[in-house]
Structure formats: structure tokens, C-alpha cells
Amino acid sequence: MAASTHWMATGAAQSVLERGGNAFDAAVAAGFVLHVVEPHLNGPGGDLVALIAPADRGRVEVVVGQGPAPRGASIEAFTAMGISEVPAAGALAAAVPAAVESWLSILEEHGTWHLADVLAYAIDYARNGIPCSPKLAGVIETMAPHFREHWPTSAEVWLADGIPSEGHLIRNRAYASLLDELAAASSATSRTEGIRRARELWRGPIARSIVSFASRPHRHSDGRDHAGVITAHDFAELTVPREEPLVRNFHGVEVVKAGFWSSGPVLLQALGILESAGQTRRIDPSTVEGIHTITEAMKLAMADRDAYYGDARALPETVAEYLLSPDYCARRAGLISDEASGDFRPGTVPGCRPFIPPVSEPDGVPTIGTGEPTVSRDGETRGDTCHVDVVDRWGNFVSATPSGGWLQSSPAIPGLGFCLGTRLQMTWLDPTSPSALTPGRRPRTTLSPTMLSSAGTPVAALGTPGGDQQDQWQLLYLLRTVVGGYTPQEAIDAPMFHTTAITSSFWPRMRSERGLVIEDRVDPEVLDGLRERGHDVAVSSGWSLGRLSMVGRDPLSGMLSGAANPRGGLGYAAGR
Known about the structure:
Strand content: 5-15%
Shape: globular
Low-confidence stretches: 362-381
Largest sheet: 7 strands, antiparallel
Strand order of the largest sheet: 8-3-2-12-11-1-20
């Protein structure tokens, strides 16, 4: 069973499974296809976070596919350039690319296919073309003037035949040629040795091409030209480690997430808060009481994220345990009243001073659907993310959220067909922040895949794009399936909502005091009730929030299941 944010990636994964490949072969094939079919949402110059569960190991592992800040990226270096915030676009915002290395490491360690066979799907689509989606067409149209004026190398890739319209075949022959090189480097040798040779090619000649181009001054989002600081040494130093995940038991289901360098623990904290609050309040996400309580719980968990999460200063294990402890979650639940809070309220953690992010007013910045569209209603280009889930006949699971390096991130690298990412925009130029810009340290990422297990055996993999909304929308899925008895597809189809009363991880770093975005399929009386409680409700179109997908496996019968998001008409689940 495979499910993803784009039907062509799902199709590639399912093809691999039907030809005898395992979940890891299939997920990697889908991952490279996503570079081609959703280039406005992810790319080879980006990153990923994945949860993998090899059936023969009996445990879930976190693939840390988030690259660190380059050694030359420091608060001192940026402030010396007159920069007060990390740019939202341009090479200065780039962490060390980790997406390609992460996919190759998964394939090397757990796959069964040769790299050339895995890459064949992406190579074919990149060379012969894929039908342009409405969102991709919109992004390219919005970026076209910037490409022509400031990023001519991007114009060469994306405007070669003019601005594409929906359904128009678009090609990326430069990326197809690059993948051909990786496939050729891996041939005529053993499977694992071939993958290592491809990784050496990526870290060597390809990395040098990236560095050579990124070091040239080019236009950044601050309206000035800067040179990037990434070096070949940064590529050589990159590792893709594995970590033990965090786990919380919720109503008998084990919810598995990545660590405090991600946003994953937000979901675990919110579940703990709601479990305590649920003793006195309803947490049904279709009622006024439920939506209010869920929203207030998420505000509290997100405040802790901004105050304590990050890789810039190591979070002591005792502090991590403290944030997830039942006693702490119960105290946080006690802060939820009948009125919407407009305050930023991180908890008090012994031995830690909370970081209070600067407050910005959301003047002129739309909140409706900010986690979903890649181009906002006022034409502002926004990045987003992809997701893929796979489970195979043997019980191997993959849940991966690739992102970054989208085509609007920075100018395309000549001859390669992709650009660098912008993950460093999630760091602060303030040394007191747990996500301060620090050479060699990972920025705190929003990427947040999920696995569910029972008695240690994985039973489901799920996730969604959506920046700061990822764990918010996954929380609704869990409440509806685990507590409400919904089927996975019913839970994905149900009206979604999220709060914007949090500090955005992306530029501009806005926070609305009581913002709540909700799809218009919710009963009008519920909307009125939320407004009466003080929420600043913005109503989005009925099918606009969330791009969840999932796959599942019953450990007793071996029966597989899958579900995908209907919003946007691209997500798809397939199996047999």
C-alpha cells in the first residue's frame, strides 16, 4: 500500500511494490519522483524527516534528514552583512542539503533494488514531461518576472517554453541528466557499493557545482544581492544519523514522533494536554467545546515549542521528559478556560529560561489557507512540503515528509535543474533562542511524519505538508480515528482547522493573537459559538486545509489499508 501527496509518486511506489521491491525501495522511488512532479514543494536541495520501521528490527527509527547550518552561517557573519533576519529566499537561507543523501542512505541500508532501477521513474518523468498541476502553474507564473529579472538560470529551467498552463507537459532535462549520472555511477558493481559511489558523486563534483554557483552574489528576499556561504566541506561533513523516536500512549495507541529538533513533540504534548483536559471537557473536533479546547491546547504546546525546542542548545533529557510528563501536561490543561487566550504562554521548565520570540503583527498577510497554498491570495509565493507513506507485504513501514529546495527558494544551479533550500529561515539571529543560527547545528524543522504502533508493532504511517499546521491537522486525524471512531478516509475528509495564534516558522514571522482558520463545511452555529468565545475566525473554502495521507497494516491479519487527501485533486492512495 502506498499513499502520497501526488498520484504519480504513489503510482511509482506501487509499481515498485508490485515488481517485488520492498517499502524502502518504493519510498525512495516515490521521493525522487516528488522532486519532479512537485518541484514547487520540494527538491534535491532540500531536506526530509522520515520514520522507518524495518520489520526485521521490531522498532521505529528516525531518519534525521535535516541538514545543519553551514560552518560559515553564523549570527556574527549575518549581522555583519546588515541582515537582521535570515532571508526567506536565496543561498544564505540554505542549510546543507540532506534530501538526496537521506534517500540514498535509506535505500543502501534497507532497500533491495539497485539505484538505477529506483531512479528510472523520476528520470523518465523529468526527461519526457509531467502534466503541470494548477498549483505548480500558479507558482511559476508568479515567479516568472523574478526569474527573468533576477534568476535567469531558473528561467532557463521553468520558462523554457513560456509560462506553463494547467495540463501542459513540463520537463526538467537537466535534472534527468543528473539522475542519469547517479544511476551510471552506481552500475557495474554491487548494489550497496553502487549507492556509495553515487553518494560520492553527489558529495564531490555535484557539490562543487552547487557551491561554485551559490557563492556568486544573487538576489535574496531582502531585496539585496548576497553570496552564499555554503562550502564543499559542509557537504563532506554531512551525516544522516538515526535516532530513537519519542513515543506517547494515547487511548491505547502508541504515537511515534521525531525529537525536539523537529516539531514532532508538539503533537505529543497536545495529546497529553487534551488527555488531561478531556476529563472535564469534550474534545470532539466537530463541536464548539471541542474545537475551542483543541485550539487552546495547541497554542500551549506551540508556545513551548518556540520557547524550548531546537538544536542550537542541547535540550537536557530531563527537560524533554518534563515537557511530556503527565503532571506537566495536566498543569498546562488547567490553563484552558472558556475564553480564547491571546497570550503567548510557554510553561515554566526547571533550569531553562524560555525564549520569547519577537511579536509581529499580521498586517496584510492572509491567514486563510496559509498552510496549503504555495501562492497566497495576494500573490505572495509560499513554500510547502510533500509526504509519502508506504507499507509492504512484509510489514516494513515508511513515513517520510520531504520538503525544501522548492523552485522559488533560490536560483537554479546551471546544469543541475534544482536550487538550494531555505530551512535556515526557521532560525533566529538571537543567541538566546534554542533555534538560534549556529554553524553545524540543525534548524528546528516543521517536518513531522507520524507512525502509530500497538505493543511496539507499527500499524499505521501518516503525515501531511503544511508548515506549522502539520501536527495540528494530524492531531485532528488522531482524535477522530482513535477517539471518535472515524475511518482513516472519513477523518481526512472531515473539516479541518488550525490556529494561527502561534509564531510562524516561516518569514514573515507573524502571530495573530486569537487566529483560527476553519473550513466552511463546519456548521455556522459552531462558527458563531467560537467567535463568542473570542476566537478570531477566518473561514476558508470547504476543501482547502490539510493534505494528509496514510497507510496501515493489521498485525494479526496482515490486511493493508490506505487513505489520501481529496483536496487539490493530486493526493492518492493505492494498493493491492
